[in-house]
Amino acid sequence: MSYSSPVSPEQEEEVSQLLKDIPDRPYPTYDELDYETYLKAHLIPNRPFLLSSRTTSTWSSSHNFRLPSTEAGPSRPNLSALRPYAHHIVPIANTYVPQYSEFERTERPLGEVLDLWERGAEEGRGLYVKDWHLMAEIEGEGRGVEEVYEVPQCLRDDWLNPPYTPSPRARSQTLAKSTTASTSDFRFTYLGPPLTYTPFHRDVYGSYSWSANIVGRKIWWLFAPDKLDKVKDKHGELVFDVRKLEDEGGGVKILQEEGEVIFIPSGWHHQVVNIDFCISINHNFFASPTLPSIHHTLCVSQKRVEEAISDVKEMIIERLGTDTDAWEKEWVEEVQGLLERDAGWGWKGFWETVLQNLNYPPAAENLSPPMAMRDAWVREVIHLYKTRREWIYLAEVRRTVEEIETLLDM
Ligand SMILES: O=C(O)CCC(=O)C(=O)O
Ligand SMILES: [Fe+2]
């Protein structure tokens, strides 16, 4: 059985409206991108690009997950090819039920969602499987991710995810990373019917992301950090859906064709709508050129946490007084605990990730920035960190930073 399309005439109309007036792409699309161009024209200046479908044409998923379309155009999804993963418990957003600044979220076995889509059930129409850790699941089951994809060469210097290996990961390799934040896995798979979407957002930690369309096409709206003036509501808050705004908020609109990979710069807001039934794979990631902006994003997140719990600071001061610095140590630790829950990591995770990637560079030298440049970015963030009071009060983190300094001969 395959996907039976329950798209209503209204939805078809919506799709054709979305496809109207797609402007020319203001960013390059490469058949092949050498590392030097990637670094100098995109990573460092933080500029988007796309890779053509040539990049993904050799991926297993490009063959297995696609059923040829009846007409010229994008493929249909081969849902039967996803059955081997039916037992994975996957996060699902119901895009028909917005909730606060997200959608209603549930977790279900993938097989149940595939059933709904194959039956053409009404209930399945707005469901979007997102943030499914397919690669981690495959590796956890002792197989290699080559059964799905291959990370493009220039994107292998990835400091946030386990280093790319096509074949099954040796147990020792999985364990080596297990004490650091970089074990956290940001290799996601997304699948959903036409018009399911991801609301306007910026990616975790201020990371970059790349996203490959295995099946179907997506429309992206991209907003550079200095282009956010038209995407705020009357309270000054960022909107949920830029399609509701005049001129769609003035973002750069891009139609990403099947097979193409898009690169989203660090700190850029974006929104994504699936035009066809889509299966896509993305990585959130960063590398040494992004360290200063990741550092900055963590500082901003920390400030927000501090403001949210300023009453706790008063309570600590009341209890311990200000004669010694005991209150400040407790406050700094309290803030880190909440930061880890709120932002996903704190300074411990940040510096352990840096150390880990210096000790075990994830990509070959010719696919990474020159060592002197890498070290200069690391030095820059060490210098910034040393002006913070966490440098004084978080002793364990200080030892990690000192280990990094030794590595860099500082
Ligand atoms: O494809 C989607 O729905 C969202 C992808 C996304 O936000 C990303 O790759 O950063
Ligand atoms: Fe994103």
Automatic annotation (TrEMBL):
This is Uncharacterized protein. GO terms for molecular function: 2-oxoglutarate-dependent dioxygenase activity; sequence-specific DNA binding. It comes from the Eukaryota. One of its GO terms (biological process) is positive regulation of translational termination. SUPFAM superfamilies: Clavaminate synthase-like (SSF51197). One of its GO terms (cellular component) is cytoplasm.
